[in-house]
Design goal:
By secondary structure, the chain is α/β, with parallel strands linked by helices. It has one domain: Metalloproteases ("zincins"), catalytic domain (Collagenase (Catalytic Domain), 3-Layer(aba) Sandwich), CATH 3.40.390. The chain has 5 helices and 4 strands; from the N terminus they run βαβαββααα. A 4-stranded mixed beta sheet has the order 1-2-4-3, sandwiched between helices. The chain is globular.
């Protein structure tokens, strides 16, 4: 089977090379034992992600990452999903949390791929103590330690 990840940028600067984004996404898919996937990762403006947030999730305002996945017809069917990341929001979150823009981007790619793979987390305070969040941070540490 095949893991295919497409990366694009619409009127924004990619915060790291597209090849690195692809390698992070494929590392997460491999860690999750996904054997076949077709995933697109689009870097978009704060305005574009705010529109997606409003249209598809009913939430006003921009967010850092939104992921959509199609229902698989069976375990052998490929995982199919779209991930949208707003670099401007990621930059602001990176500054607020004292991490680099690159690390925050890795975190958002990992987060989006985990959502496409079927993981979810509660909103609010329970988010950072959720099983998904712990898995996310484990994978962020794993992929960032490989690039050093």
């Amino acid at each position: 089977m095949t893991l295919a990840v497409a990366v694009s940028a619409s009127r924004v600067r990619l915060p790291m090379p597209a090849a690195r984004v692809r390698s992070v996404a494929t590392a997460v898919l491999a860690a999750e034992r996904v054997r076949a996937a077709l995933i697109s990762i689009a870097f978009v403006s704060a305005r574009a992600i705010a529109q997606l947030n409003r249209d598809h999730l009913g939430v006003d305002g921009p967010t850092d990452v939104i992921a959509f996945s199609l229902q698989r017809s069976g375990r052998a069917a490929p995982l199919i999903g779209d991930i949208y990341i707003a670099p401007a929001i990621a930059r602001a979150h990176a500054r607020r949390h004292g991490v680099t823009e690159r690390e925050e981007t890795v975190r958002l790619v990992v987060h989006g791929v985990l959502h496409v793979a079927g993981h979810d987390h509660p909103g609010g305070a329970g988010r950072v103590s959720s099983r998904m969040w712990r898995r996310q941070e484990q994978l962020v540490r794993r992929v960032t330690s490989r690039s050093r």
